[in-house]
C-alpha cells in the first residue's frame, strides 16, 4: 500500500519547535515536567519511526526485511509508550496522593506491560503485524492496539471524574478535547487507510498540554528565575499528597519600599535575585519559591528544617552587596510544619498570613514558629471566622443598643448600635474579635449593612412611632473599609429611605485613625452624606494618634472620647490633664462631646464637673437587646409634665 505521511512530517516539525522551546525556556523541575519531556520525545520518536517505516516499506529494494521489521517494532514500541505517558501525565495533574498513586500506577501499568509482552512476542507469533515476502500485514491481534488506546481513554476519564474537585476546568477541557481529537483521527484513518495521522493527534495533545498546563512562564518568576507561587502551590500539594514531613520556612522582607527608593528598581531586583540564589544554593531548585514580590518560601525536609532556618538567619545578619552598595535586609520569618500544623494548601496560606500578623506585632526581624499556643489561637480565629461568615449568610447578627445620657436634660437622648454575635459552639464572640477579621477580608461591609438595616428597622418600629421615648438619634459604627468603598453613599441612603428614616436621626461613628489614613475619599463621602442630613461622630478620640487637624479637616458634629483615656484620668494626673485639655478644645470648637466608659456615680460626677454633657457607660446602661432597651428608656426618660423639648 502507498502511505501518505505528509501530515506525519508536518506534525514532527511542530513537535520539534515545542521541544526546542521546552529545552531553552527554564522549566520548573517537577515530575510533571519530566513526564511531559518524556512524552514529547516518545511522540517524536513514534513519528520518526512511522515515517521511516513507510519509506522502508516503499523501498524494499533498498531496505532489508529485517530493517523494516525493526522499524515497525520501534514504531509500535513508542506508540504503546505515548498512550501510557499521557495517562501518567494526567495522573500527575490529578494529584492522587501516595496510596492513590500506587494503586493507579499498578492499574495503569498493567496494560502497558501486557502491550510490551505482546509486542516482544510479535516477531515470533505475528500478534500486531507480520511480514511476508517483505510485505507488511496486520497481525491477528491488531485490534488490541485500539483496545489499548481505548482503555487509557477510559482510565483518563475515570481519573478525571474521581478527581473532578481538584482538576481545574481548563484541564478538564483539555482532556476531553484530547479524547475527541484522538477518536476523530482514528475514524478518519479507518476510512482513509493510506493516510497516516497518528502524529497529528500526538502533536495536538502535546501542543494543548504545553500551551495550557505546562507553560513554563506560569511556574517561573521572571525576575529571579525561581519557582513562583503557582509552582509553590503545585509542589506543596505534591508534598502533601506524598505525606512527606516538611518544614516550610517563609521570609518576607520589611521596608522594601525604602530599598527600592534608595537603590532604584533595577538594583533592588538584583538584590532579590541574590536572595533567591542564596536560598537556591541552600535548598535546591525545586524547594525555593518566590511566592510574592518580597516573600520567599522554602520547602525543607523536616530533619533539616532547623539547620536551614539557622543558616538563613545567620546570612541575614550580614549585609548584601549590590554593585558598590552594602545593604542590610530586614525580614520576618515564619515556620510551619507539615503534618503537625496544616493539612491542605489553603490551610497553609491562611496560617502563614496569621503568623506574619503575629510577626508584625513583634517588631522588626521577628521569627515566629508555629507552636501549640499559636495553633490554639489560629484555631479559635478560624472558628470565629466561620461563625462570622455563617452569621453574614444567615443574617444572624443581633444588634444591641447602649444609651447615651444627657447630663443637662437628665435623660437618654441617643443610642449606640453595637453588633452582637452568639455562636452555638463558641458562645458570645466580642465584636472587637470578629470586627478586626471582618475588616481584614472586607466582610465588614456586609456586617455594616446588616447593622444599619437592623437599627433602621428598630427606629422605624419603636422609636419613631413612639415619640415620647425622646430618642433623637441612633449612632452606627462605620469601619475604615466601608469608608473606602466608593459606594458608601449608595449603600446607606437607600436603607434609610426603605424605612422612612429622616437622615438626621442617624449618626455615623468613625474612628479617628480612619480619618487620618484616607482623607480625600472620606472627605468626599462625608460631604455627600452630610449634605443629605446625616451627622458624623469621631469615635475613640484620644486613642492612637490623636490628631486635632481631623476636627478641622472633616465635618464632625460630635466627638466621643475614648474610654481608655477616661479611665486613665482617674488613675494618673497627667492623663487627667490631657483629658481636661481635650475637653476644653472640643468645647472651644463648639462641638458636642460624649465621654465613654463611665461605670460609677463618682466618675459621672467628675465628668459633670468638667462640663461634659453626654455620657455613655455602664453606669447609665450597658448595651441591651431591643426589648430591654425600650424598657430601660421608659424607666429613665420619665418626662416631667412641664418638660418642653
Ligand atoms: P466602640 O465603638 O468604642 O463601642 C463602645 C464599646 O465600649 C462597646 O464595646 C461597649 O460595650 C463598651 N462600653 C461602653 N461603655 C462601657 C463601660 O462603661 N465599661 C466598659 N468596660 N465598656 C463599655 P463592644 O460592644 O464590645 O464593641 C467593641 C467595639 O467593636 C466597638 O467599640 C466598635 O469599635 C466595634 N463595633 C461594635 N459594633 C460595631 C458595628 O456594628 N460596626 C463596626 N464597624 N464596629 C462595631
Ligand atoms: Ca462607637
Ligand atoms: Ca468608642
Fill in the keyword field for this structure.
645 residues; alpha/beta; Rhopdopsin 7-helix transmembrane proteins; Alpha-Beta Plaits; TIM Barrel; eight-stranded mixed beta barrel; 16% strand; binds ligand C2E; binds calcium ion
The CATH homologous superfamily of the largest domain is termed EAL domain
Small molecules (ligands, ions, cofactors) in the structure: ligand C2E, calcium ion
The low-confidence runs, each spanning 5 or more residues with pLDDT under 50, are: none
CATH topology term of the largest domain = TIM Barrel
Through-space gap between termini = 109 Å
Number of domains: 3
In short:
The chain is α/β, with parallel strands linked by helices and 645 residues long. It is 57% helix and 16% strand. The strands form 4 sheets. Strands 10-11-13-14-15-16-17-18 form an 8-stranded mixed barrel, surrounded by 6 helices. A 5-stranded mixed sheet has the order 4-5-3-8-9, sandwiched between helices. A two-stranded antiparallel sheet has the order 1-2.
Notes on the protein architecture:
This protein is α/β, with parallel strands linked by helices and 645 residues long. It has 3 domains: 210 residues, Rhopdopsin 7-helix transmembrane proteins, CATH 1.20.1070; 152 residues, Reverse transcriptase/Diguanylate cyclase domain (Alpha-Beta Plaits, 2-Layer Sandwich); 256 residues, TIM Barrel (Alpha-Beta Barrel), CATH 3.20.20.450. Strands 10-11-13-14-15-16-17-18 form an 8-stranded mixed barrel, surrounded by 6 helices. A 5-stranded mixed β-sheet has the order 4-5-3-8-9, with helices on both faces. A two-stranded antiparallel sheet has the order 1-2. Strand 8, helix 12 and strand 9 form a beta-alpha-beta unit. Helix 21 packs across helix 22. The longest helix is centred in the N-terminal third of the chain and has 29 residues. It is elongated. The N and C termini lie far apart (109 Å). Ligand C2E binds next to strand 11, helix 14, helix 15 and strand 15.
Amino acid at each position: 500500500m502507498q502511505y501518505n505521511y505528509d501530515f506525519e512530517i508536518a506534525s514532527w516539525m511542530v513537535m520539534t519547535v515545542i521541544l526546542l522551546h521546552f529545552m531553552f525556556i527554564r522549566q520548573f523541575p517537577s515530575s510533571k515536567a519530566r513526564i511531559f519531556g518524556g512524552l514529547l520525545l516518545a511522540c517524536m520518536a513514534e513519528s520518526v519511526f512511522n515515517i521511516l517505516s513507510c519509506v522502508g516499506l516503499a523501498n524494499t529494494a533498498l531496505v532489508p526485511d529485517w530493517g523494516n521489521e525493526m522499524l515497525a517494532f520501534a514504531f509500535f514500541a513508542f506508540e504503546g509508550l505515548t498512550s501510557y505517558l499521557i495517562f501518567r501525565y494526567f495522573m500527575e495533574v490529578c494529584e492522587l496522593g501516595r496510596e492513590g498513586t500506587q494503586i493507579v500506577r499498578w492499574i495503569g501499568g498493567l496494560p502497558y506491560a501486557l502491550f510490551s509482552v505482546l509486542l516482544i512476542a510479535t516477531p515470533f507469533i505475528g500478534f500486531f503485524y507480520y511480514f511476508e515476502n517483505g510485505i507488511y500485514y496486520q497481525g491477528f491481534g491488531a485490534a488490541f492496539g485500539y483496545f489499548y488506546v481505548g482503555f487509557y481513554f477510559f482510565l483518563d476519564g475515570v481519573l478525571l471524574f474521581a478527581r473532578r474537585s481538584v482538576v481545574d476546568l481548563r484541564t478538564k477541557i483539555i482532556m476531553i478535547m484530547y479524547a475527541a481529537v484522538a477518536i476523530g483521527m482514528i475514524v478518519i484513518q479507518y476510512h482513509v487507510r493510506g493516510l497516516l495521522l497518528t502524529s497529528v493527534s500526538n502533536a495536538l495533545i502535546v501542543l494543548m498540554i504545553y500551551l495550557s498546563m505546562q507553560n513554563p512562564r506560569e511556574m517561573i518568576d521572571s525576575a529571579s528565575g525561581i519557582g513562583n507561587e503557582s509552582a509553590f502551590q503545585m509542589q506543596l500539594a505534591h508534598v502533601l499528597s506524598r505525606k512527606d514531613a516538611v518544614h516550610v520556612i517563609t521570609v518576607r522582607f520589611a521596608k522594601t519600599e525604602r530599598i527600592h527608593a534608595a537603590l532604584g528598581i533595577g538594583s533592588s531586583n538584583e538584590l532579590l535575585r541574590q536572595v533567591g540564589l542564596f536560598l537556591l544554593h541552600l535548598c535546591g531548585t525545586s524547594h525555593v519559591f518566590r511566592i510574592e514580590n518580597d516573600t520567599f518560601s522554602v520547602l525543607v525536609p523536616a530533619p533539616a528544617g532547623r539547620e536551614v532556618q539557622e543558616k538563613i538567619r545567620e546570612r541575614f545578619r550580614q549585609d548584601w552587596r549590590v554593585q558598590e552598595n552594602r545593604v542590610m535586609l530586614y525580614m520576618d520569618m515564619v515556620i510551619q510544619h507539615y503534618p503537625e500544623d496544616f493539612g491542605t494548601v489553603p490551610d497553609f496560606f491562611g496560617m502563614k498570613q496569621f503568623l506574619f500578623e503575629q510577626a508584625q506585632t513583634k517588631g522588626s526581624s521577628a521569627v515566629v514558629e508555629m507552636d501549640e499556643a499559636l495553633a490554639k489561637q489560629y484555631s479559635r480565629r478560624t472558628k470565629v471566622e466561620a461563625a462570622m461568615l455563617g452569621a453574614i449568610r444567615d443574617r444572624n447578627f443581633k444588634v444591641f443598643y447602649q444609651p447615651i445620657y444627657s447630663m443637662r436634660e437628665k435623660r437618654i437622648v441617643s443610642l449606640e448600635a453595637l453588633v452582637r454575635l452568639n455562636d452555638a459552639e463558641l458562645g458570645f464572640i466580642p465584636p472587637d474579635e470578629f470586627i478586626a477579621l471582618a475588616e481584614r477580608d472586607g466582610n465588614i461591609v456586609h456586617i455594616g449593612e446588616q447593622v444599619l438595616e437592623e437599627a433602621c428597622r428598630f427606629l422605624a418600629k419603636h422609636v419613631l412611632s413612639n415619640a415620647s421615648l425622646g430618642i433623637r438619634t441612633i449612632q452606627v459604627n462605620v469601619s475604615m473599609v466601608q469608608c473606602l468603598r466608593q459606594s458608601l453613599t449608595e449603600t446607606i441612603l437607600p436603607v434609610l429611605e426603605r424605612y422612612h428614616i429622616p437622615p438626621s436621626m442617624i449618626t455615623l461613628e468613625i474612628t479617628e485613625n480612619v480619618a487620618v489614613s484616607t482623607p480625600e475619599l472620606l472627605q468626599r463621602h462625608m460631604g455627600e452624606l452630610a449634605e443629605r442630613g446625616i451627622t458624623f461622630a469621631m469615635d475613640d478620640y484620644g486613642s492612637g494618634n490623636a490628631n486635632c487637624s481631623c476636627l478641622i479637616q472633616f465635618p464632625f458634629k460630635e466627638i466621643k472620647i475614648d474610654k481608655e483615656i477616661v479611665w486613665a484620668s482617674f488613675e494618673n494626673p497627667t492623663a487627667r490633664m490631657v483629658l481636661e485639655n481635650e475637653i476644653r478644645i472640643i468645647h472651644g470648637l463648639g462641638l458636642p462631646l460624649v465621654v465613654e466608659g463611665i461605670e460609677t456615680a463618682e466618675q459621672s460626677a467628675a465628668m459633670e464637673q468638667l462640663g461634659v454633657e453626654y455620657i455613655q457607660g455602664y453606669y447609665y446602661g450597658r448595651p441591651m437587646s431591643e426589648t430591654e432597651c425600650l424598657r430601660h428608656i421608659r424607666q429613665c426618660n420619665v418626662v416631667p409634665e412641664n418638660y418642653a423639648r
